[in-house]
Design goal:
This protein has two domains: about 140 residues, Probable inorganic polyphosphate/atp-NAD kinase, domain 1 (Rossmann fold), CATH 3.40.50; about 130 residues, Tumour Suppressor Smad4, CATH 2.60.200. It contains nine helices and 16 strands. The strands form three sheets. Strands 5, 6, 7, 8, 9, 10, 13, 14, 15 and 16 form a ten-stranded antiparallel beta sheet that branches. It is about 35% helix and about 35% strand. The longest helix has 17 residues.
Length: about 325
């Protein structure tokens, strides 16, 4: 078996590159030959695009993304663009080694990703490359750009922008914010900085051609995965292979705070049932196409990365477009 490994050296403050020697050892143990893309000076999406342009995927049995949700999104975007550009092109399976901050995609697909990614977790992820179960994953598309995890407008993108500004400003203290734990700490600080400064916008949302909501909004999430922002599950009916996307809308700061607290995914089972009951009035719907019109332009994000702001977004789903590998071994 030959793998194309796309590693983002900057994921989670360099956590991915630190893990590479162990990943390479595990690949050898499983008899997996590989080509590695891991240039620190070139965005991982550009590296994948150049590889596909020069080589295609003729001798590649599996593509392995090593990094967080943004890394997987960039790699999958380039794979889909390459597939769509040529008649009859198909993709080999895509496998995940989740070494980012939130790791929404991996958590939604059954990978175990704790606060500290253990050697056992890493070995299980590498084993999935050759021995995982086959699964076909949907993709969302916003204004022509595909996403694997989720798309957000409003408060959360502003928190992300604040994180990126503070990350540059605190470069001298970067050792405090390295790895998944450090990344979550910085996000928490930036949430506090942005939370009460977010203003409401009027929004009009249509789902599959029918008006669903018109009114105030501070945050709107359209998810392809069940897990959002690493720790939250807003609705148990969200699956990555159902041909649907899930939309959750938050009208104000109190609604946002209550909904997020009740959506924490690591509550004991009894508390989760109670939280689901208390959160029954959550503004949630599912659909295949969403038109979102805003009274003012708002920043956005896809898969944990900044996305150009606008006052109109059209979001749709491409069902089952990406073949992937998911864990088959027990934890």
């Amino acid at each position: 078996m030959k793998a194309l490994c796309a590693l983002n050296p900057s994921s989670a403050g360099g956590f991915g590159i630190k893990c590479w020697p162990r990943i390479a050892e595990l690949l050898r143990q499983h008899g997996i030959d590989y080509v590695l893309l891991a240039d620190c000076d070139v965005p991982i999406g550009d590296q994948v695009r150049c590889f596909l342009k020069d080589n295609g995927l003729k001798n590649i049995d599996v593509v392995v993304g090593i990094g967080g949700d943004g890394t997987h999104s960039m790699v999958i975007q380039q794979l889909v663009v390459w597939m769509d550009a040529g008649q009859g092109r198909t993709l080999p399976p895509y496998a995940f080694i989740p070494l980012g901050t939130a790791n929404d995609i991996a958590k939604s697909l059954g990978f175990h990703v704790g606060a500290a990614f253990s050697d056992r977790d890493l070995a299980r992820a590498v084993s999935t490359i050759g021995h995982g179960a086959d699964y076909r994953m949907d993709l969302g598309v916003v204004n022509g750009t595909p996403f694997a995890d989720g798309f957000t407008i409003g408060l959360d993108p502003n928190i992300l922008r604040e994180r990126n500004v503070q990350k540059k400003r605190l470069h001298a203290l970067r050792f405090l914010f390295q790895g998944p734990i450090g990344g979550n700490l910085l996000y928490t600080i930036c949430t506090g900085l942005r939370f009460w400064r977010q203003t409401q916008r009027d929004v009009d949302v249509s789902v599959d051609g029918h008006r669903w909501y018109a009114g105030p909004m501070i945050n709107l999430v359209i998810n392809n995965m069940r897990v959002y922002a690493g720790e939250f599950e807003f609705h148990q009916s969200a699956y990555a292979n159902d041909g649907l996307l899930d939309l959750v809308l938050f009208t104000g700061q109190r609604d946002y705070l209550r909904s997020y607290v009740l959506a924490l995914r690591n509550y004991p089972r009894g508390l989760r049932r109670l939280a689901k009951h208390l959160n029954r009035n959550l503004q949630h719907t599912q659909g295949r196409r969403f038109d979102v019109r805003l009274s003012h332009s708002e920043p956005a994000q896809i898969d944990g990365e900044e996305f150009p702001g606008s006052d109109f977004f059209r979001v749709s789903v491409r069902a089952g477009v990406v073949p992937i590998k998911i864990p088959a071994e027990p934890l």
